[in-house]
Automatic annotation (TrEMBL):
Signal peptide start and end residues: none
Single biological process term from Gene Ontology: glutathione metabolic process
Residue stretches making up the GST N-terminal domain: 2-82
Organism: Strongylocentrotus purpuratus
Domain GST C-terminal: 84-208
Record protein name field: Glutathione transferase
CDD domains noted in UniProt: GST_C_Sigma_like (cd03192), GST_N_Sigma_like (cd03039)
Length: 208
């Protein structure tokens, strides 16, 4: 087993799926967190942060930037990428669907105009309906516990992390899952009864 070191800000964000996989796998790693102020100095290290972004995963002496690459690498290494190629493809479908949702979400999150926030929130809830409806149908067809296969996969982890951020952080969107009872039930079960329960209860408190 290689030595792992994950470098990211001191909140959940884009590194949280990696942290969840480490916790689920019982895999030791160094969780190197830093503040925004510390980042201003640390990002000048081009060997550790070759594109000036975080997170970065250090695997022995190999640097892996980009959160998507980190998540997929760990999912394959730690057995969260499905039992076969078809399940892997199903996981990728879900990751890309969540990526489409995130693209629509970002203008709302970076908006600084409170006067526009209500209308932008309504617009996001409306335009994201096809994606959430699709995910609602997928989890219903899968039986409600796991999106792909019969155990936790990167799909479950990624969806929970994003929905948790959208419903349980300073960026909370009121009523987001009101029309999606299956997704709401999945999140509650994953948080309260799933194998990550102890990790979720003990992880550092963060606004996002």
């Amino acid at each position: 087993m290689p030595n792992y070191k994950l470098l990211y800000f001191d909140f959940r964000g884009r590194a949280e799926p990696a942290r969840m996989m480490f916790a689920l796998a019982g895999c030791e790693y160094v969780d190197d967190r830093f503040t925004h102020e510390e980042w201003l100095e640390r990002k000048t290290d081009k060997e550790m942060f070759p594109i000036g972004q975080a997170p970065v995963l250090l695997v022995d002496d190999k640097v892996i930037p980009q959160s998507g690459a980190i998540s997929r690498y760990l999912a394959r290494e730690l057995d969260f990428y499905g039992a076969n190629s078809l399940e892997g493809a199903q996981i990728e479908i879900i990751l890309e669907t969540m990526g489409d949702i995130e693209k629509q979400l970002m203008p709302l999150y970076v908006n600084q105009d409170e006067a526009k926030k209500v209308e932008m929130t309504k617009a996001f809830i409306e335009t994201s309906k096809p994606y959430f409806s699709y995910l609602e149908q997928l989890i219903k067809e899968a039986g409600g516990k796991h999106f792909v296969g019969n155990k936790v996969s990167l799909a479950d982890i990624h969806i929970f992390n994003m929905l948790d951020m959208m419903t349980n952080s300073k960026y909370k969107i009121e009523g987001l899952l009101d029309s999606y009872p299956q997704l709401r039930a999945f999140c509650k079960s994953f948080r309260d009864e799933g194998p990550l329960k102890s990790y979720l209860e003990s992880r550092p408190v963060a606004e996002i």
